[in-house]
């Protein structure tokens, strides 16, 4: 902290080169100037603002996002930093946390100091403070523009604090930068009580929202910048997080105090936090403007597409078709890891060992999260043969657009909801795209003995399930690979609907209004509503009628709807449910066996390790030595 906060005012200014209208926020700074020249005119000040945005854009790398790497939705089958042939440089740090490798000496995903795939968010906050302290200087900057830029910097500053709170709980609040002549005592900042931290973030957002444009009108020049709609949605998420069990009267952290003996965690549950969150969600929904469910946008060359395939591509396209109406907040950097999520569905892809790695492996447990075709959990559906789900069955006419007809696959892959087939791929599943746009004669995954088979012990899928959602149908891998790149969405309209439903249930309990918002999400996926589905098909037909039962339904609905989007890890933490998910060892199929019977044998893929202490991240031991006013995260 001493290194972070005791800074010289004449700091380096990042000057950005604008390579394209969509990437202007992503450019790495390559020049320096004095602070005086940084705010000499409006152009220089804007360049400094884009420097504040740079850290935000870097958060779009899913390997940096605990919501993705520590969710249990996807595992990485080996330590990447040990595989120099793959160009590894610690990129698996987040995945290693669920292996039990987190530590306080050199923390993984260290966002306090900027190590091990983390980013130094204190430096990012400092840049925002410098901008806010100097944005009044440029003489040619119109007042309306100054207000907007100030609001953007306040949003960024709020969001960086929020990210730190989700990771570390109580943190120091850095509202202004310390002067260069600050005393040692001033530099040794203290953590503030948790609710003070959340309230500070909300205060900054409230200050920013009135001066942000409701939506970004000039997409060619300003795509990726913050709007009032984004800020309102983020405020809703912040308050839902504050109201959730990890942060709202959590007895596990009740004894946590700072060096002055001040309690850092709220001692008692406060229902009014859910009421604040409910109001914020309602305000966000009232201001989503033109946001609407995604309408499929197709590229040329399609030979045949059934209504079934069209639905699957619509479900997937809402995430991978950038800047569509369903995406409330999208970050500019493009997802560069499609080859990690894709199987080898063609001989050409299999012939180029470097084209497809397939290492993002989906555990069988995650695949079983998705509903049956009746819209209820597979272990609750009275018509689903749950006990025999690992037996084998041949693809039939009813599943011809999901599973290759006549191909033998696991019985649990049949009779599932559309989101399962849109989001997850498996042995025998149809893969529309990758150069073949005819779903009457599509590509499919032959993991047992075809091009999907792992060529070595490095470039393979460890479970036999792929995160299909992350690979657009236009992407083709082979001797010459062509990726349909897309920018990473941070928040979707359906996710906001489910946050609102969650708040409604926590405040008012089950009722028609809650069902309405959940059912809007389900209708998009082609499912009947909650009441109809549970009443008709569930072995627990009244589950939706209690607050606890409906809470479980909402949580599962949200995990399905936002699967592989970098949300589940955050949600499971705030719900205090991640320990339950990661208490089960990761299982998959025997992927190196070349016979059908041998392949379909369950095997242990990876042991996971997660305890109460892993809900919040440790501060590096060295930081506690340099700043004795800090206290280590409880249990570390």
UniProtKB/TrEMBL annotation:
Domain RagB/SusD: start-end pairs: 356-636
Pfam families listed in its UniProt record: SusD-like_3 (PF14322), SusD_RagB (PF07980)
InterPro entries for the chain: SusD-like_N, SusD_RagB_dom, TPR-like_helical_dom_sf
Keywords annotated in UniProt: Cell outer membrane, Membrane, Signal
GO cellular component, one term: cell outer membrane
Domain of life: Bacteria
Keyword Plastid: no
Domain SusD-like N-terminal stretches: 120-214
Major site of localization recorded for this protein: membrane
SUPFAM superfamilies: TPR-like
Keyword Ligase in record: no
PROSITE patterns the UniProt entry points to: PROKAR_LIPOPROTEIN (PS51257)
Subcellular location(s) of the protein: Cell outer membrane
Protein family membership: Belongs to the SusD family.
The name this protein goes by in its record: RagB/SusD family nutrient uptake outer membrane protein
């Amino acid at each position: 902290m001493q290194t972070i906060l005791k800074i010289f005012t004449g700091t380096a200014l990042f000057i950005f080169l604008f390579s394209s209208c969509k990437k202007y926020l992503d450019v790495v700074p390559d020049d320096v100037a004095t602070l005086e020249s940084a705010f000499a005119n409006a152009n220089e000040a804007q360049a400094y603002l884009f420097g504040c945005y740079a850290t935000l854009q870097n958060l779009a790398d899913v390997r940096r996002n605990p919501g993705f790497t520590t969710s249990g939705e996807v595992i990485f089958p080996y330590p990447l930093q040990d595989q120099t042939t793959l160009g590894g440089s610690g990129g698996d740090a987040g995945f290693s946390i669920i292996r039990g490798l987190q530590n306080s000496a050199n923390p993984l995903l260290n966002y306090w100091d900027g190590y091990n795939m983390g980013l130094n968010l204190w430096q990012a906050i400092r840049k925002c403070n410098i901008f806010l302290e100097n944005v009044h200087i440029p003489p040619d900057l119109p007042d309306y523009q100054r207000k907007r830029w100030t609001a953007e910097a306040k949003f960024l500053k709020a969001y960086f604090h929020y990210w730190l709170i989700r990771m570390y709980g109580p943190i120091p609040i850095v509202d202004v930068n310390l002067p260069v002549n600050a005393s040692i005592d001033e530099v040794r900042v203290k953590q503030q009580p948790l609710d003070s931290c959340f309230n500070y973030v909300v205060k900054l957002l409230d200050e920013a929202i009135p001066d942000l444009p409701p939506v970004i009108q000039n997409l060619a020049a300003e795509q990726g910048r913050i709007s009032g709609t984004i800020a309102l949605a983020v405020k809703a998420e912040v308050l839902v997080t504050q109201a959730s069990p990890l942060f709202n009267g959590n007895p596990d952290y009740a004894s946590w105090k700072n060096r002055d003996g001040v309690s850092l965690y709220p001692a008692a549950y406060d229902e009014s936090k859910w009421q604040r969150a409910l109001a914020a969600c309602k305000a966000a929904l009232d201001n989503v403007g033109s946001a609407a469910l995604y309408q499929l946008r197709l590229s040329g060359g399609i030979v045949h597409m059934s209504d079934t395939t069209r639905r699957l591509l619509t479900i997937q396209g809402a995430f991978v078709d950038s800047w569509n109406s369903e995406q409330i907040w999208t970050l500019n950097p493009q997802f560069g890891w499609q080859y990690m999520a894709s199987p080898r569905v063609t001989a050409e892809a299999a012939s180029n060992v470097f084209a497809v790695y397939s290492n993002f492996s989906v555990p069988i447990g995650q695949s079983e999260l998705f509903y049956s075709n009746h819209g209820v959990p597979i272990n609750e559906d009275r018509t689903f043969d749950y006990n025999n789900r690992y037996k084998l069955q041949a693809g039939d006419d009813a599943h011809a657009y999901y599973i290759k007809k006549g191909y033998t696959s696991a019985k649990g892959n049949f009779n599932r909801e559309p989101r399962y087939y849109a989001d997850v791929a498996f042995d025998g599943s149809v893969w529309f795209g990758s150069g073949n746009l005819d779903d009457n004669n599509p590509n499919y995954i032959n993991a047992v003995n075809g091009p999907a088979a792992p060529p070595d012990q490095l470039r393979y899928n460890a479970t036999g399930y792929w995160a299909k959602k992350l690979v657009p149908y236009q992407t083709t891998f082979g001797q010459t690979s062509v990726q349909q790149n897309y920018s990473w969405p941070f928040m979707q309209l359906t996710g906001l609907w489910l946050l609102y439903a969650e708040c409604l249930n926590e405040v008012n309990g089950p009722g028609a209004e809650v069902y309405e918002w959940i059912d809007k999400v389900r209708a998009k996926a082609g499912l009947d509503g909650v009441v109809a589905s549970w009443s008709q098909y569930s072995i627990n037909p009244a589950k939706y009628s209690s607050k606890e039962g409906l809470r479980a339904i909402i949580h599962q609905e949200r995990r399905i709807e936002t699967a592989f989007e970098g949300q589940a890890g955050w949600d499971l933490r705030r719900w205090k449910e991640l320990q339950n998910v990661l208490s089960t060892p990761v299982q998959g199929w025997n992927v190196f066996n070349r016979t059908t019977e041998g392949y379909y044998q369950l095997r242990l893929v990876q042991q996971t390790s997660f305890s109460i202490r892993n809900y919040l991240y440790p501060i590096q031991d060295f930081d506690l030595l340099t700043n004795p006013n800090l206290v280590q995260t409880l249990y570390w």
